[in-house]
Structures are given as structure tokens and as C-alpha cells.
């Protein structure tokens, strides 16, 4: 009976890894879609999100079935409950990638991102994708050091986000209000996407160590996470 | 044994109702703070969010303890798992109210909202507060009809959000980019806050009827939720 249990638990873990892979790919492709004004790619990202949603529903159903059938306690129980939370983080990340793609579609054949912000948005998109790739790796390896790295990557995302805002606020901004609105929302989508990737990694840290990632980072003397807005 | 169980379950329900009350009050006060440029009120909302976070942590710990000790199955299990999700919705709503308050603090002694948008933002704030009040009532009464109302209120929020954007995009906009960015984020905060209130109500519907709220609304011929952005 315990063996079936661990098989089922593994398969929930596999589902999370697959979700992380899908949403990481989605944010990368959504970024390409918005920078290249690629409608076809945007549509593919938008349509693809239903697969993430299906995976989440499936994963939740299996987690609940597992709770009912096996009635785990202590660490095992914590793993299942945490899996439910991580699947919510990943599902929401998929929504955010979809939002980026929807903005690309809304502005097609124009691009929502002016030329002088292409490199910043590209960096944000790539960093978001890397963060999610690392979160997926943390899910597989349970590597606490790698998980703690994600918080520093998230600091880099905050810096990019701030750079984006500074550019917007610059007196020389000449792209008008609509583009300012688009870029503001875009910045927020990437920032939130990164937050969810960090959240997944933090939850793994908590499962492995029983301590919250913030406490471990303080011990390690790592820089604070900066102000979240 | 079953009695202790139902007492504990009730107390989790009470915790959710209390969270809904706190975040509903927070969004109302944050709205006042940003419209009146009231720094003291903004600080109070910002500081008050830790109470919501504490409640969530407490509620989660009790839910997990309940799962471990009582090992509920079927409906009871679904109630506990759903409570965990609702507490996450409510915690996030608290964050969003805090974001509104932080924006008020950032722009103090100015106000982030120009005069000609005061009434729209006031309406969004009031609607957000009402949505959360209804969500709290749904938690208490399990009233499915009331829960379905929330989706229509959310449509009203979408309309306000669109009106806000139209105002921003208007050629006569004269408040500059910084204010456009502030108003864009503000609109997003209210919209997301409303989404979480609706989500809480939907989860209650699912617990009571075993059907998703969308399906029930379709049966009732209610208008669709509109495009979420």
C-alpha cells in the first residue's frame, strides 16, 4: 500500500515539473510573440494555457484522492498540501504568460513594446523563463542552494522592473499613454510570474528544511528581497 | 470525536469570515487613503495586513492539523482543502489592498488619482468592498444565489476598469505618464481583488452544489464573465 502511495506522490511531483516546463516555455514564447508582433505564436500561447489548467485540475484531483485514500500524516501530509499550493502558483504563472500573449494579440500588427524597451523586456522575459526553469529543477532535485538562488534572481527582476518604470517616467518618453499602460501591465506580469517561480522554490525549501527560505537567507547574509510593490 | 472535528471545522470557517471582513475593510480604507491622500490611514492599512497574514498562517496550520488528526474523506475533506484555497485568495486580497495603500503613501502629499478619476476609483473601491462583504456573507450562509450575484458584480468591475482605461487613452489626458502608470496599476489591483472575492464565492458554490459556478450561471442564462485581461 505504501508503495502505491509513493508512486502516486511521485506522479504528482511529475505533474508539477511538467507544469513548470509548460509555463516556462509559455513565458518565453509570449515574450517572443510580443517583441516580434507574432500573432500566430501569441495565439498558440493563449490556446496552450488550457493544457496547464487541465494539468492543475488533474493534479488537484489526484492530490485529494491521495489524501482520502492514504490519509498521510506529518511530512507526507505536508508534501501533498504543499503540492496543491505549488500547482496554484504554476497555474497562475500560466495565466500571466497568457496575459503577455493577449497583449501581443491586442496590439497586432503593431508591437506593444517600443524599440528602446525591447532589450529590457527581452531580459525580463528571459529571466522569467530561467526562474521557472530553476523552479522546475528545484522540484526535481530538492536542491536548497539552488532554491535560494532564485531569490537573488528575483532581485534582478525587481531591478529590471524599476528600470522599465524609470524609462516610462523619463521626460523624453514619446510613445504616448497607451504604450505606457501596456508597458506598465507587462512589467507587472513578469514581476508576478517571477514571484510565483520564487514561491514554488521557497515551498520546496520549507518541505526539505522545515524552515522558511527567508530565515535561511538571513542566516546566509544574503541581501533582502527589496521592496515589493 | 466527530464533535471536536466539527468544532474545529467551524473555527476554520470563522477564520475565513474574519479574513474576508479584514480585507474588505482594508480595501475600503485604502481607497479613502488614496483619494484623500491620507498618509496615516495608508500606514494603518499597510501595517494591518500582517494580521491577515497571521490569520492565514494560523488557519492553514489548523487545517493541516485537522487533516492529520481526523483524516476526513469525501465532502469533509473537500471542505478542508477548499478552505486552504480560500485562505490563499483572501491573503492575496489583503496584499492588493496593501498595494493601494502603498501607492497612496508613495505619492503623499499628492494624490495618485487625478480629480476627474476620483469617482471612478471610488466606485471601484466601493464595489471591491461590497464584493468582499458578499463573499463573507456567502461563507456564512452558503447562499448559492448570492454567490452567483458576485459574478455579475464582477462584470460591473470590468466595466469600471474599462472606463478607467478609456479615460487614460483619451487624447485629452493631461496628467502625464507617472499618473497614467499609477492609475493603470490601481485599476489592476481592484480588478484582481474582485477576482479573488468571486473566487471565494465560486468555491463555496462548488462545495455546496458539486458544480462549478460557471455551469450554474450558464444554466441560469446569466451573461458571460466577459474577457479577463
UniProtKB/TrEMBL annotation, chains A, B:
Keywords assigned by UniProt, alphabetized: Cytoplasm, Phosphate transport, Transport
Chief localisation class: cytoplasm
The protein's name in its UniProt record: Phosphate-specific transport system accessory protein PhoU
GO-annotated cellular components: cytoplasm
Coiled-coil residue spans: none
Assembly and oligomerization: Homodimer.
NCBIfam families: phoU_full
PhoU domain mapped to chain residues: 16-103, 121-204
Localisation per UniProt entry: Cytoplasm
Annotated GO biological process: intracellular phosphate ion homeostasis; negative regulation of phosphate metabolic process; phosphate ion transport
Listed InterPro entries: PhoU, PhoU-like_sf, PhoU_dom
Organism: Streptomyces mobaraensis
A matching Pfam family: PhoU
Gene from which this protein is expressed: phoU
Keyword Phosphoprotein: no
